[in-house]
Amino acid sequence: MCGIVGGVAERCVTEILIEGLKRLEYRGYDSAGLALLNKEQILRERRVGKVANLAEAVSEQHLTGNIGIAHTRWATHGKPTENNAHPHVSGNVAVVHNGIIENYQELKDELQALGYIFTSQTDTEVVAHLVNDALKQTDSLLEAVQKVTPRLKGAYALGIIHTEHADELITVREGSPLVIGVGIGENFISSDQLALLPVTNRFVYLEEGDIARLTRTSIEVFVNGERVDRPVKELDATVSNASKGEYKHFMLKEIYEQPEAIQQTISQALNGNNLREDFLQHANADFNKIQQVQIIACGTSYHAGMIAKYWFEQLIGVPCQVEIASEFRYRTPVIVENTLYICISQSGETADTLAALRETQKRAKANNINISTMTICNVATSSMVRETDHHLLTLAGPEIGVASTKAFTTQLAALMLLIIKIGQVKQRLAAAQLTEITEALWHCPKVILDTLQHNTAILRLSALFVEKNHCLFLGRGTHFPIALEGALKLKEISYIHAEGYAAGELKHGPLALVDNEMPVVILAPNDEMLDKLKSNMEEVQARGGELFVFADENSGIQEKDRQHVVHIPAVNEWLAPIVYSVPVQLLSYHVAVLRGTDVDQPRNLAKSVTVE
Ligand code: G6P
To answer: What structural domains does the chain harbor?
Structure first.
């Protein structure tokens, strides 16, 4: 998704803006640009493609300035062309924008009638012209922006500069993330704090509707024209977290970080085989009351929710529904009293999940229905964390690869911790089961480490996928969502068409696709469904399909003609989906590398989908 970086400083900000944009590359984009103020002039450069193209152009022309805004654009309105790239300029105003201005056509018609000439197909350009127009009535850039924002419908974060206000940067947050980075004698903005980590670890998190004026030495935040205080928070993430280190790609690094990430996530909750007393303590009364759970999420996070549904119902007998946020938010679902609504989100900013949450809260309030809300999230400062009653953090560290890996497995670990907690509060979890699961949780990082030892074997298998056009993933029970996740990973980064299916559904359709060109990936943990799964494998083999099986070392499944097997270490049945995520991640990764795709930033995809 689009990214914003901006700064006002005594030093030249060009390099800071370029480095910031590079740090936002992981979010996905197709063009980049920046505008600097220098001697009351706007110096603008825009390029299609990578930030490196922009960096080259900027350095060739020696563009410098003490104040500037920069942007990576992920095309929504209009193709990825130089003219459509941000910043957009009108007169002396330059604007960068994340989000969507829904009523842009109406505003464009009005501005064109006033004589404004549009040079792009974007919705953003209306903002530049509107601010320019508002400056006819006021000398204050802040006031002009304050006049314009009530006219904009949709979600947006903005960075705005003006040649005659060469010491100030105006920024707006309305439905799209934006943080202010607080420096010493310099201040910055970004849509993602990661972009600013080289210059500061102190941040002001704007709230929806905030408009801020930044100078080198001051930050003023306004809501409806009134000054408000927003605290400065210090972040402990280190700059090194966002580098690839010895790995070729962030995705591979993040796959290998899973043992540690899971260890961190469970350590916050467990003391030996017991839950820490203070773990989600403030939620005890709410958990006691809840009768059911509704999970809302998108993408990989949705798959984590699907697994949790099995766990909630089988382990502690709490009914659980899971739904894709983009469906949930628009279908007017019945809001049921005493339901715990859980958002699962790596970023905590996904537009559909956030909108589904807000819609639920609004309707519960309007109808006086008692519900609780919770977020499972990897970003402590995110909108979802701030807007829900309770939250549980996945301590995975920043995840840069677009294809989610460690965020997913830590979500699973966090969900299991939550289920244990609710089970205890509601007295639905036997002591023996608590011990079994907590022991297995502690053991999980080691089993993942052992599974990672199969990397070379998986690399060898991946060579057999390179020429394929289609692939099936099959699993049963909690491994049905892992089959979906495996297929999602493979299609996201290798661009091979892949489908995940519940193995029991094989005969109801996908079997028709199986022939000797169809690789079929099987997830075969040692659970009570194993024999049924073996029958499904026979069905595939009988049709000439080639099997790639990730099987428990005690499953009895062995290599044979057109059946490749990687043996996964024995693991507790409840936690097996966490471990079986790893081989499907590695498989997708290696296939993608062999096919030469952009693994960390696959085409057309974004890390954090902050627009609809
Ligand atoms: C995008 C990302 C996925 C992610 C999904 C949901 O599609 O590419 O990796 O699973 O958004 O994101 P969230 O931050 O809400 O988990």
So the answer is: 3-246 (3.60.20.10), 252-447 (3.40.50.10490), 453-595 (3.40.50.10490)
